[in-house]
Specification:
69% helix; MetI-like; membrane; globular; Carbohydrate ABC transporter permease; transmembrane helix
Length: 281
């Protein structure tokens, strides 16, 4: 019979193999995308059966993507939009989350429930009113319609409120005894403690802005204003034939910034998850 230690090792080993298999399963589409993008003849016929190692290794598809310089312009558009969207989204979420967590004002619960209710409204229901509003303001075919909606980040507000709820109330009380006002308490005491949740919100906001397709498709018609997802969609079909290799190469380049941002900020996300289980005394 196996001992308790032996059973524990067996269970851990089985869990490791299960997680390894799931990890490989989830990575396979990404690896196949890279393989197809490096296949010289993938624009003529999609490699079948799917294989991870190209038969005719070539950077031809990447040369097609970079040759006219449009990718760099769309990268710049998406980078500017994503940067300002992240700044607005994170800033508003931190301020609103602190107000709902530590603030004392009339109607706080009602307003918080109203914020939660906005999460139940699908984007498709808000699309036409938003388009009409920005059209009346003369902002169609500009970056503003892609940036300003990030000010309202209901999920971020909820996450920040929960994060602040778990921080010790004694920090705020001590500062108030010393005569600090709410702005001083937030910026000098609580804001420096928000690194983990700020990193989490930044990644979520960046990913949402960078990958957005439907809203930019509605409000952007100018070729010079296209974002990376719109540029990617233009490679899906050309002259009636699907350019699979070029599309996969563009897709690989489009997700690169998200991977880089996640690799740099992943330790803060793990710390945020760990702190979510701690309760302030």
């Amino acid at each position: 019979m196996l001992s308790v230690t032996g059973k524990g090792r067996l269970v851990n080993g089985l869990l490791f193999l299960l997680l390894l298999g799931l990890g490989v399963l989830m990575l396979y589409p990404f690896l196949w995308m890279i393989s197809v993008s490096l296949e010289r003849t993938s624009n003529i016929a999609v490699p079948f059966p799917p294989r991870l190692i190209p038969e005719q290794f070539s950077l031809f598809n990447y040369k097609l993507v970079f040759e006219n310089g449009v990718l760099f312009k769309t990268y710049a558009n998406s980078a500017i939009i994503s940067l300002f969207s992240v700044l607005l989204s994170v800033s508003s979420a931190l301020l609103a989350g602190y107000a709902f967590s530590r603030g004392e004002f009339r109607g706080k619960k009602f307003l918080f429930f109203a914020v939660l209710a906005t999460m139940m409204i699908p984007f498709e229901a808000r699309l036409i009113p938003m388009f009409s509003m920005f059209n009346d303001l003369g902002m169609i075919n500009t970056k503003y319609p892609l940036i300003f909606p990030a000010i309202i980040n209901a999920l971020g507000i909820v996450l920040v409120k929960q994060y602040f709820d778990r921080l010790p109330e004694g920090l705020r009380e001590s500062a108030k005894i010393d005569g600090a006002n709410e702005f001083t308490i937030f910026f000098r005491i609580f804001a420096p403690l928000t690194g983990p949740i700020t990193a989490t919100l930044a990644i979520l906001a960046f990913q949402d802005s960078w990958n957005s397709f439907l809203w930019p498709l509605v409000v952007i018609n100018d070729q010079d204003m296209k974002t990376v997802p719109l540029f990617l969609s233009s490679f899906s079909s050309e002259n009636g034939s699907r350019l699979v290799g070029v599309t996969m190469a563009t897709a690989a380049m489009s997700i690169l910034p998200i991977v880089v941002v996640f690799l740099f900020l992943q330790k803060y996300i793990i710390r945020s998850i760990a702190l979510s289980g701690l309760k302030g005394e």
